[in-house]
Amino acid sequence: TPGASSLLLESIVTYDRRSYAEFVSQNIIAPNANEDDGGWWMDLENNADNNGQSSSSSSTNSNESSTFQFCSTQASILLSRSALHRSLQLTPSFQGKSLHCIGVACTSFLVGKLLPPPDKGEGDVGGRNGRKSRAYIACSTLREGTLVWEVELDDNKCSEVEGSSTTGRRLRSQEESVVSNLILLLMMRYREQQLDKPLDRIGGDDFNRLLSQILDRDGDAIAEKRIGHLANDSVDINNGEGGGKSAALGASQIINGGANVVAVLPVPSESNEKEQEQPLKASRMETLFSDNNIPFPRDVLVVPGSFNPPHRGHVALANAAVSALRRLRKKDLEEENNGNDAIISSRPYSRYSSLSTVSSASASSSSSILKNLWDTVDQQSDEQYDPTVLYEMSVTNADKPPLDPSEVERRVNVFTSLPSSEMPKDWAVILTNAPLFSQKTSILDDLISDNGDGSFGSENQGSGRKMSFVLGTDTMVRIINPKYYGNSRENMLAALVDMKEKGVHFIVGGRLEQGSENRSRFVNGEEEVKSLPLSVQEMFTLLTEEEFRLDISSTELRKRMEHE
Fold first, then answer.
1. Are 415 and 268 in contact (CB under 8 A)?
2. Euclidean distance between CA atoms 222 and 228, whole angstroms
3. 3-state secondary structure 389-441
4. Least confident of 59-73, 74-88, 213-227, 474-488
5. Helix, strand, coil shares of the chain as percentages rounded to 5?
6. How sure is the predictor about 407, in pLDDT bands with cuts at 50, 70 and 90?
């Protein structure tokens, strides 16, 4: 289909039961028993139905409640969520994972009339009379949850179609066409309900008209179920607001102890999405995920700050860090390619995949071919996707009361007023309960390594870098100042080594410093970093004056805003 390559990531027919079982087992993520985000999984277990039965199970296992039904609501939900998680594995960008990935699944039991052989008259071919055709269609996204249609097709020998009599039930090919059209209609409806302002063209009377054109027999029936997903178990998909919440509610969740990290994403309006502007202009900021539900990408950039207010200096520093991280990734790849065969054969195929490489016993030619394949894929991904930028704001403070949620929302919403053409291509805001750097690194280390979507891969992969904090010189100097570690250089170095083991890196932007005789000079912490051991110096990338220097003061901006 023309244009499908820009939308479709993967299409799989799990026709055999073992194929279905392996695909679901490899891709589904069931919450741990001690996690409080497992409402959707409990709903799935409690709502396991036996209505959609295959031909074998209906005759032999209909009374066995423990028998898994491969044609059922439960089966379609499992398959849809597995497809969603698979799409997360295939999507490098954070916004893509969070806002645009969708898993679509259908399990069906179609027993429509088959055409008899030419030498035989009308009859019950295959013993299909009296058996209803059923289909269970599910769509899942991180943002909205799962919407399921349970469909039962007419099995009468004579049905009314627009006032005329149609003899016999549908042919098998006709039933397949009905189910295919329902899948497309459900995806269209789901899409409309994700927009900033849902449109009427796929809702209300128009939607009912399309649905009645597909299900045009008296005996056709359809029911709808909604099951929350992860952070949004109580989402009503028809509320016109999407699954999102305000930044204030996300801040309250942190203050009340409900989460350590909350992700707030820029949500574009429908008109902006049509224009395909890159990056898209955000119409609002929505709190979508928290803690383990956040689909963190690998090797992420974290820009901490109070953002009072967010300004172009923050954006410029982030963009400079994106360029710096690109250079670091290129350097990492060159070092890997120049390494010995043992290193190359032991690392995963791809920096974006969790797949294991071929064993060392495999033929070197085979390993070389696969390596070339994945290097090409990775290079194209690097060219297409910029590193993710997360603007991190701690809602809590080490020695002050937490920020008021309304103040958090005010600051976060300012991001939408910044020029979209200057924003990083892939960005979001994360609210945290981590005023100290040691807390930030510990929380993010747990979340990134445990996100489960395969996007980070092996802990020994490449440089081992998980997160790069983007700082100004003054903040960086405080981080390596023994004063903040009990006046102990040993404690300071031990803390830095601990951060390094967690995959922490620092990218530092400089500033002008007023020197003697009213002369200014550019400083970026180079002298202070040189005093550290070489193994610790490797944690720091210092941006030159040519790479970044933008003299904007948040204090001056606040004063200017107060006067306006």
1. no
2. 20
3. EEEEEECCCCCCCCCCHHHHHHHHHHHHHCCCCCCCCCEEEEEECCCCHHHHH
4. 59-73
5. 40, 20, 40
6. very high
